[in-house]
Structure formats: structure tokens, C-alpha cells
Amino acid sequence: MSHFADIKTQLKDQQALINGLREMGFQIEAISITSEMTANQIAKAALRYVNSYNDSRHAHVIARHSKLREKQTAIGFLWDFEAGVYTLQCDPYEIRHSEYGSEFGYSHLTDEAIQTLLNYQVQLEHDRAGVFLNYPSSNFVVIEQRIDNEITFTIKPKPQIQQTISHSIGSAI
Q: Do 154 and 126 reside in the same domain of the chain?
């Protein structure tokens, strides 16, 4: 039987989440959440989405993928105002029985394993996107290395930025 499950995450940055999900091939629908919004305003702004069994949920970021079951299934992310993180909402049954599940080896996994792996993949892409948001290529050289599902970044300021910093420091002394 199909049902949604909620998974605690460390997803904190909406733009990094959106960029990471896009990198994973998802189409995104999102409500912009600002620091001025109250918990009640945030709750009211949530979007409704359904799975292929017509079970519904509300989320602030909805991720759809053409390889999810019947192209209806979505993965949702609901902003937890108190914790300051998104809660991942997914239906492991529908993921398991989709082309997406087959492609990523989820077909024979338990619900808990699917939830854990999906959360890990989304977290990894969220964190990766966060690096590129905070260290733009116009100012930094970012070298990314992936080994066994782990990402290591080496971040260095571009040479022209270093020279500007050196000259600014030198003239202040």
C-alpha cells in the first residue's frame, strides 16, 4: 500500500535545495519563504500535491521527475519553521515501483532504505549546490572531486581577487 513518509533532514537553504534537485533531473515548483514570514503564513502558503493513489500532502518545494510512477508522484519538502529545516516527504512504494527506482537500484530495497538513500542523495546535491551559491565561479576556483558518493571541494580565490585583497591590506597598513 502506498503512503507518504516524513524524513528529517539538514536541508536549510531553499535555493541550494532547488538547484540540487534540478541537478538530479527534477522539475521544481516552490513557494518562496522569507525571514519576514510567520509560521502561520508559511503554513498557509504550502502547495498541495498528490501521489498516484490520490493521497495528498502539502509542501513548500515539490519535485517532480518524468521517471517517477505515472509521472504523478512527487517528492515534497515541507519547511519546519521551528527547526529551520525542510522535512522530506516521499512515498517509498511509488519510488520503488517507478522507472526512477529501477534506474537507481531502489527496486528491491525496503522503505527505510529508500528513504535513507533518497535523503542522502538530496542532501549531497543540496550541499554541493550550496558551495556553488556561496563561492561563485566569478570570484573562486572550485575543484570538485567525487569518490564513492562523497564530494570533496577545494576552494581558492581567483588570482585577481587575491591581488586586490593584498593591495587593500597593504595600503591600510
A: no
Report residue 102 as a C-alpha cell. 529501477
- Identify whether residues 83 and 24 lie together within a single domain: yes
Query: In terms of residue numbers, what domain contains 111?
Result: 5-134
- The total number of structural domains that make up the chain: 2
The DSSP bridge partners found for residue 6 are 89
| Total-model pTM | 0.82
Note the pLDDT tens digit of each residue in 60-89.
999 999 888 766 678 999 999 999 999 999
What are the b/e assignments for 131-166, b being 16+ CB within 10 Å? Answer: ebeebeeeeeeeeeeeeeeeeeeeeeeeeeeeeeee
SS3 of residue 105 by DSSP = coil
For residues 77 and 154, state if they share a domain.
no
Same-domain check for residues 129 and 140: no
- Distance of alpha carbon 124 from the chain centroid: 8
Tallying the residues shown for the chain, one arrives at: 173
Same domain, 75 and 119: yes
pLDDT tens digits, 107-148: 899 999 999 999 999 999 999 899 999 998 888 888 888 887
